[in-house]
């Protein structure tokens, strides 16, 4: 847990210290889907839950074609009366293919807010996405994050579990 917080602090500090030509801030929200997969002995089972996410972001302009966009989201997914609530921190590197279209990639950190026996609350993923600026203020983005961390605390049984997320959202820059 301390290592994850240290990594997040270092990344966010580096981003804040970027000699940015232009920095914008805003809000984002939309559809959130989480897929939880468990693997053992070559077999994998998975189940998904859908919900929403709401968050804030900063968009740091690094060069003409490159931005860094750290975000913080509250995400909630529901299935059959059960919910999974998370705080998600993606740090996306955005490369502008055209003036309005960008490709995104970067780490994603997440923290499960509920107590759950045997579950690692912290996770790390690798996110990929696509964004499109509808105007100077409004944009749409779609992102998939592949979970890299084993979410089970007990690894003695040889079972691993990972969280993958998909988000489709709308954002507004102030």
**What spatial order of strands do you see in the largest sheet?**
1-2-3-4-5-6-7-8
Average pLDDT over all residues? 89
Number of domains: 1
Contiguous helical run count: 1
Query: What fold name goes in the CATH topology slot?
Result: Porin
CATH class category name: Mainly Beta
Low-confidence stretches: none
Q: Roughly how much helix do the residues carry, as a percent range? A: under 10%
Radius of gyration: 17 Å
Beta fraction: over 45%
CATH architecture: Beta Barrel
How would you classify the helix and strand content by structural class?
A: mainly beta
Biggest sheet overview = 8 strands, antiparallel, barrel
Shape field: elongated
Order of helices and strands: HEEEEEEEE
Give the oligomeric state of the chains in this entry, treating copies of one chain as homo and distinct chains as hetero: single chain
> What is the tally of beta strands?
8
For the termini, the CA-CA separation is 33 Å
Signal peptide: 1-20
Keywords: Signal
InterPro entries: Beta-barrel_OMP, Enterovir_OMP, OMP/PagP_B-barrel
Protein name: Outer membrane protein beta-barrel domain-containing protein
Q: How do you describe this structure in short?
A:
This is Outer membrane protein beta-barrel domain-containing protein. The protein contains one helix and eight strands; from the N terminus they run H-E-E-E-E-E-E-E-E.
Give a verbal description of the structure.
Keywords: Signal. Pfam families: OMP_b-brl. The chain is mostly beta strands and 174 residues long. The protein has a single domain, classed as Beta Barrel (Porin), CATH 2.40.160. Helices cover 9% and strands 66% of the residues. Strands 1-2-3-4-5-6-7-8 form an 8-stranded antiparallel beta barrel. β3 and β4 form a beta hairpin. The protein is elongated. The protein starts with a helix and ends with a strand. The model has no long low-confidence stretch (mean pLDDT 89).
